[in-house]
């Protein structure tokens, strides 16, 4: 027949596993909300797309302005060379306007070239950040599936342990349960320690021969170092 100390040890195994499973379940649930890398990748992709859109809009605006300058210059040149303008001052004004439009055209062409290079740079950054986002999405999806599977396994095991605990408690005498509970409160929830050979597995300290004899016959014996109930395994 299993001694009361061995029954306590089995209860301790159940309780310790319940604690560890609950702790891990908390970690798993927290990890499912911790998608900082994915959020960062999404933000980077959004920023890159916004920058590309802004640079393309600037290039388009410059191209539209250039088209307007070219159109205006052509009208002025057509008028200048049409022979319809006779007034010298008006002819001079047209000439000055054409020259000014030419200077603006040259400046716009330089600005458009620079804008095209910036668009090309932004497009490359946009493509890279989008690829990184997609990779993070896939990585997170795999991790989330793994975490959810582990969550299910933990929940099932916890349910089994919580169902098994009352039956184990029922096999233990009330005075022994009081000892178990008071000892557990004093030692971070671990009341019973395995004794292998002469060594307490909780603290690694050897016990006396007298206590070993007590343990062997199923009596309550406490580790002289950590104070936990010893159980031969």
The fold-level CATH name of the largest domain is Helix Hairpins
Whole-number mean pLDDT = 95
DSSP summary: helix tally:
5
Assembly type of the shown chains? single chain
- Give the termini separation: 15 Å
Q: What is the number of E strands?
A: 3
Into how many domains do the coordinates divide? Answer: 2
The CATH architecture designation of the largest domain is Orthogonal Bundle
CATH class of the largest domain: Mainly Alpha
Uncertain stretches of 5 or more adjacent residues: none
For the biggest sheet, the summary is: 3 strands, mixed
Q: What integer value in Å does the Rg equal?
A: 41 Å
Large-scale geometry? rod-shaped
User: What's the helical proportion of residues?
Assistant: over 70%
| Spatial ordering of strands, largest sheet | 2-1-3
| Element string (H = helix, E = strand) | HHHHEEHE
Structural class designation: mainly alpha
What percent strand? Answer: under 5%
Write the layout of secondary structure elements.
Layout: H1 4-31, H2 36-80, H3 88-170, H4 174-186, E1 192-196, E2 199-200, H5 209-216, E3 229-232
Parallel strand pairs: 1-3
Antiparallel strand pairs: 1-2
